[in-house]
Every structure is written in C-alpha cells, then in structure tokens.
Amino acid sequence: MPHISLPAGLPGIRALFAFRPETAKALCELAEVLLHAPGTLSPAERELIATYVSSQNDCLYCQTAHGAIAASHLGGDEQLVLDVKRDFSHADISDKLKALLAIAGKVQLGGRNVQPEDVQHARQHGATDQEIHDTVLIAAAFCMYNRYVDGLATWAPPDPAAYRQRAGKVAREGYLGIPGDVQSTQAGR
Amino acid sequence: MFSPLRLAGDMKVDPMFLPEVEGDPPPSPVADLIRVAQAGGNEYPKIWHLFAYRPEATGHLSGFTQEIMRGDCPLSPGIRELIAAFTSYGNDCPF
After folding, report:
1. Are the C-beta atoms of residues A85 and A101 closer than 8 Å to each other?
2. What's the whole-model pTM score?
3. B20 to A130: CB separation less than 8 angstroms, yes or no
C-alpha cells in the first residue's frame, strides 16, 4: 500500500512517473544515458551494476525490473543475474566488471568508502576514467531511485513474468518512451 | 562530523580519483565557470568538474534538481533546501 495516493495498476517507479511527470522526464533521460545509450560498457554490464546496487539496497521492484532488463540483454540468462546478485566475485563475468561492481558496492554503502586502491584495481583490469565515473554515477543514481521507490512504498508485482514483458521493450527501445507509456496507461483506465 | 575549516583545506589540496574528470572538459557553462575560477586563483566546489565532465548525463541531473528544488510545489524553496541540507548532513557530505 503506497504511502501517498498513486495511480492504481502502475508498478514501482512507473506510478511515481505518472504522479509527477515533471521529474519523470529528467529521471528517464538520466537512465537512458547511464544504462542504454551507446557506451564502452555494454547495456548488459550497466544493467547488472544497477541490479546489484538495487539488490544491496533491498529494493525488490528495481532489482527485479533491472535484473529482467539485464537478462534480456544477455539473451535471457537469468542465472547470471542471480549469480551477480548473490556473489559477483564468483560469477561468470569479466574481472573488469567485478572491479567496477566492487566500487559500486562501496558507493552503495556510502561514497566515502571508495578508496584509491579500488580505483587502481579497476584501472589494472582495463577500466577507463569514464567507465569508473559512470559506474559511480549509476550506483549513486540507483541509491536515489531505490529510496524514491521504497520511500513511498510503491507496489512491486510479485510475478516475475510481469517484469520480463516490460524488460524486453526497455532493452530494445530504452527509457525515453516510459513517461509517455505511463501517461497513456493511465489515460486508458 | 566535519568542521567547515577543514573542508576548505580539503577542497584545495585533495586531487580527485579520476584525473580525466579534472582534465579538459567539453564546452559548457560549467566549464566556463571552472576556467574563470581557476584563472582568478579562486576556490570552487569540485562537483563542478563532475557536471562539466559528462554534460549529456549531468544536464539531466541539473534539470531534475531545478524541478524538485524550484519547480511548482507547496513547499517553499527554503524548506526544500533545508531538506536537502539535512539529508546531506545525514550522509556526511560536507558540500
């Protein structure tokens, strides 16, 4: 039961986007640049960082939604997403992504936990300044999204199938269409 | 907790983790601000470098901040800044 009166039937952050379209636009544009727009880290890698941070923040909606988007980018490999959430150090991912996830995990605990040796370690595995920068920004942004979603007690659908369906569309088309989608879903009710 | 005096010293001497972020930023109003501050030998908040480094991402952050801090809302801008300052204090972020 959400803490404020939100449009019914829209899950998680989508209900908040419908409630406050003025802030939805900027939040979706930021998600597009961080997770979907072309970059040297693949969309799957960036979605895994977002999923991992959301799981560390215990945000059910965000970790399930972005985990499903990551899996969609990975050809449906939901097991790899689970492995990253449970113990990324033993997951079947590159050492560079492991080093970036370690930095993201420290940002989740609080930005000042990141130490020069964490940055050095990521560089040794080939991470560029921009990749390290974007990892920190993804982790910081998802701490915000996670607190936004749970601070207002939004509804998270219990059925993973509901997330898979939307995930395929976001993986293909990105985030810019979401504010329009939630407005038309609302208008259709 | 921090003291404002120590904060000023830290901002002057501590290099950032990512030298590229402090390097030559693409043209933007924030990049101009940094150049003016540096040319005058003035101190400035390092978050300016973050905003100058990746304007395609941080432009959206500025837009978001403008909307929640100054957009149409029954809470006055002063109250909203107090909420932001209180949260930053709770997060131990001096800036």
Report:
1. no
2. 0.91
3. yes
